[in-house]
Every structure is written in C-alpha cells, then in structure tokens.
C-alpha cells in the first residue's frame, strides 16, 4: 500500500510517517495558469486600490443569509476603497455598491 499526502513538510508541523506515506504537495499546481475570464481580468486590472476576494464556500447558500446580516456585509464592503469579488450564488443583492462584483463561480487555481 501507498498513501500520497497532499501537503509539503515545510508547510506543516513535524509528524511521524511510515515508509508507505509520501508527501506530494503541489502536484495539482499548473506550471502556467490558465487565463482568467475576460470580465474578471478587466475588473482586477481596473482596481487601483486592490481587490478583496470574499467567499463563504459552498456549504453556505446565499439565500440562507438573513437580510440584516447581508445588508451589514453590503454596507461594510461599500465603505471600502478596494474592489470586492464576492462568490455569490444568486443573481443580485439589493443596494449593491459599484465596488462589488458578484460571481457564482470563480477560478481559484489560476
């Protein structure tokens, strides 16, 4: 048997392994990343004050966020000078500021 572990020893704490355990961290990394979608690249290129990527993962559905918490996030993000890329699975957010870009899917390895 052989166990391949997706980590690299310099990035984790020391731990004992048996001989059949091999760290192979980074195998999924592409030598050259794919180009970003044009609209996303344009959004990033136009960000003079930087960009914040905000995602709550796939376990949280956008429709389950209470309206008052959603508006608190929107109001807070709207006060920032950075552009916000928000992974969001609904079409739009009420009162969305111009500095927020909503996407239901975003490349995370490019």
TrEMBL record:
What domain of life?
Eukaryota
Q: Does the keyword Nuclease apply?
A: no
Q: GO MF terms on file?
A: UDP-glycosyltransferase activity
Instruction: Could you list this entry's UniProt keywords, alphabetically sorted.
Output: Glycosyltransferase, Transferase
Q: Which Pfam families match?
A: UDPGT (PF00201)
Which family is this protein grouped under? Belongs to the UDP-glycosyltransferase family.
Q: What is this protein called?
A: Ecdysteroid UDP-glucosyltransferase
Q: Which organism is it from?
A: Culex pipiens (House mosquito)
């Amino acid at each position: 048997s052989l166990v391949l572990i997706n980590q690299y020893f310099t990035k984790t704490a020391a731990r004992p392994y048996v001989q059949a355990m091999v760290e192979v961290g980074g195998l999924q990394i592409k030598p050259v990343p794919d180009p970003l979608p044009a609209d996303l690249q344009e959004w990033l290129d136009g960000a003079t004050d930087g960009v914040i990527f905000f995602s709550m993962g796939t376990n949280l559905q956008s429709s389950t966020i209470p309206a008052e918490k959603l508006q608190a996030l929107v109001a807070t993000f709207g006060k920032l000078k950075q552009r916000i890329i928000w992974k969001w699975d609904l079409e739009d957010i009420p009162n969305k500021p111009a500095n927020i870009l909503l996407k239901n899917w975003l490349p995370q390895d490019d």
